[in-house]
Amino acid sequence: MLVASNRGPVSYAVADDGSLRSRRGGGGLVSGLSAIGPESGALWVCSALSDGDREAVRRGVGEDGVRMLDVPADVHADAYNGIANSVLWFVHHMLYQTPLEPVFDAEFRRQWASYETYNRAFAEALAEEAAEGAAVLVQDYHLTLVPGMLRELRPDLRIGHFSHTPWAPPEYFAMLPDDIARQVLRGMLGADRLGFLTRRWADAFTACCERFAGGLGDTRVGVHGLGADADFLRARSHEADVDERMAALKEEIGEGRRTIVRVDRTELSKNIVRGLLAYRQLLDDRPEWRERVVHVAFAYPSRQDLAVYRDYTAEVQRLAEEINEQYGTPGWRPVVLHVKDDFARSLAAYRLADVALVNPIRDGMNLVAKEVPVVSDTGCALVLSREAGAHEELGEDAITVNPYDVVQTAEALHEALSMRPEDRTERSKRLVAAATALPPARWFLDQLEALRG
Ligand code: G6P
Q1: If you take atom 5 of ligand 1, which residue's CA is the nearest one?
Q2: How far is CA 360 from CA 181, 203, 270, 364, 434, in A?
Q3: ipTM of the complex
């Protein structure tokens, strides 16, 4: 069995003394696939993303069961920053803003050629590594052309593809140039089976195929709603480093205050800015919460090679500062914002959460919505966007919001903070049950069985 994804389970950095330090990769895809360890005998083909990764490839350093592809840095930059994260991510999350975007010009065509080269590098590596009849599970929007390319090279393989993002509805997908739209769909349809996180994304994909590719052909489509890994999270969140960070965080929050917690990559689709605006609205509309609540927002830098992501990170920081200046008092800092990635500190915040705020504009699943209820010490209330994939499973016991409506979101925060403890406990129990229904290991095996079956 082989897995292919842009981001792999591990990344490397060169330390001051020249040695290589490894750390866990971030994001929903890696969390989901964490279930496959080296003992599974699987080979995970991924990309060298950092200078440290490239150095690791050069030195022949690596983990068992992981092969990093070192495609030329400029080809990777075009494919990853230019096409995957500036075009395909924006299409599937419906993030473009007219009148300026999108513009598919000659530069886009040049980057598209790199995207093809990048996908071909994966297809060739997989063709070379796979045993006769092996199952290959290709992941996400970075690698949409791989199934078709691999099918041509190795008709004997069982090929699956899984999307960790939403899929755009046909009216929005139609923004892509016609030939590119068809190429993406045909690339995907090279797979025997395609997986999506929710029925809604699977249906959107099917609708796109009907409109632009003459239907699904022989390819089957299935839904696998990735859940939280309760055992791992519960054990990890009680380790010493998490306790230490909890103590520090409690200091920052102050005695006896409620917490509204969010943890995201600084990513436009996560809607962090509107979350802060909603919190400000809450402090405006409901002065009784002043001094009594703290918004703990961890916004970890993501895709910082792209100006639009850097600007977004800066805007989040600016607005948090503004709220603190506007409302803060000597003993109360209304927003505690951290932008440096720290998994142990995220778990500490999860444990302290009274309310979890998850308000994306659009999100494939959003694992944070599932993780916080599992880890929270007192059982948290969940304010959840109707546009997160997780809403399909958690909607009944969450407080649902329209992610664009900051007044409604402010009211939802008030409702969540005011929930009677016994209601909160009951709802939180049901959230945990729904959030852990399909843990990563089961999620992965289900896909594999469906592909082989
Ligand atoms: C989402 C995508 C993943 C990606 C992750 C982190 O979850 O679906 O494919 O790995 O974001 O983004 P990054 O660009 O840092 O890999």
Answers
A1: 27
A2: 25, 20, 4, 10, 19
A3: 0.98
